[in-house]
Design brief:
The chain has 275 residues and is α+β, with helices and mostly antiparallel strands. It has eight helices and 14 strands.
Length: 275
């Protein structure tokens, strides 16, 4: 696409994301009935009617904006794991998490987001991170930088001798093996804490408000938008194998994204491979 076409697509996606949030998510924020909340894989893994309807709306809108494209959405993959195969295909893929931070959404906490990323042949091209209850929209384009509210976004280097603040996989979602892999971060000079919405943790890294994240799971809808956002804001990421994160999976875990390469390397040196 030429720059003008990209600009029009970015604006149209921005509008589609805001519309899905305005029509399907925000009217249900702090208004959910009990029957509109369902457990997927246990009491901490929730889905709501807002997740499902927002993903359905975004699927229609995004594929119309880019004919021939497909959607890999969290709820679609939950219904049919085969949907993930599109990430290794030849057509452009929209990676969608309609409500990232569903637990926060259910509990009336504004710390949730709608995440959209565009990828082709495993390469991230653009991303949108929208926190509707906080009125924050961050956009990144591969090679074109990152913006928050239309203003350039930069991580900035971590101040010398600053304790490294790290958001890690939430204890409620981790196995004993994963906890052990992350336990290396419990050391002098590092301050790990359980993460909230992954998308908003990535946004805080890109804003320089958080030094790093370290995660032990690889669902692409949780990470695609944030990884590109951090990269385009000047940050760095990698897995414990010293390789870039692969959208299609099969990554050596845990992995990190950090505000600068030095911090990313230090975090990786403290982590232990899962398994």
């Amino acid at each position: 696409m030429d720059p003008g076409e990209w600009a029009r697509l970015e604006a149209a996606v921005d509008e589609a994301v805001r519309k899905a949030a305005a029509t399907e998510i925000m009217p249900r924020f702090r208004q959910l009935a009990q029957h509109e909340i369902v457990q997927k894989n246990g009491p901490h893994d929730l889905v709501t009617v807002a997740d499902r309807l927002a993903e359905e709306q975004l699927t229609v809108a995004l594929t119309a904006l880019l004919p021939g494209s497909v959607v890999v959405g969290e709820e679609a993959v939950h219904a049919d794991a085969g949907v993930l195969g599109a990430l290794e295909g030849e057509v452009p893929v929209w990676i969608v998490d309609p409500v990232d931070g569903t637990r926060q959404f259910v509990h009336g906490d504004p710390g949730f987001a709608t995440l959209v990323a565009l990828a082709h042949r495993g390469e991230l091209l653009a991303s949108w991170t929208y926190a509707p209850a906080l009125d924050l929209m961050a956009v990144a384009r591969r090679g074109g930088g990152a913006e928050l509210g239309g203003r350039p976004l930069r991580c900035g280097p971590r101040p010398v001798d600053k304790v490294i603040d790290v958001a890690i996989s939430h204890y409620d979602f981790t196995t004993a093996v994963e906890k052990a892999a992350l336990s290396g971060l419990v050391t002098e000079g590092v301050a790990p804490r359980p993460c909230g919405s992954a998308g908003l943790e990535y946004l805080d890294v890109a804003r320089g408000l958080l030094d790093a994240v370290a995660f032990s799971w690889e669902n692409p809808w949780d990470h695609a938008a944030g990884l590109l956002l951090v990269a385009e804001a000047g940050g760095a990421s990698g897995t414990v194998a010293g390789e870039p994160f692969r959208l299609a999976g099969g990554n050596a875990l845990p992995f990190t994204a950090a505000r600068d390469a030095e911090t990313a390397a230090h975090i990786l040196s403290l982590l232990t491979a899962v398994g």
